[in-house]
Amino acid sequence: MNKKTVLTILKKKQIGEKITMLTCYDYVTAKLISSQDIDVILVGDSVGNVKLGYNNTLPVSVEDMIYHTKSVRRGNEGALLITDMPFMSYEISIEDAIRNAARIIKEGGAEAVKLEGGSEIVDRVKAISDAKIPVVGHLGLTPQAVNKIGGFKVQGRNEEEYKKLISDAQALEKAGVFAIVLEAVPEKLAKEVTQCVRIPTIGIGAGRHCDGQVLVVDDMLGMFTDFTPKFVKKYANLGEIIKAAVKNYIDEVREGKFPQEGNTYK
Ligand code: KIV
Question: Cα–Cα distance between 19 and 151 in angstroms, integer?
Answer without folding.
Answer: 29
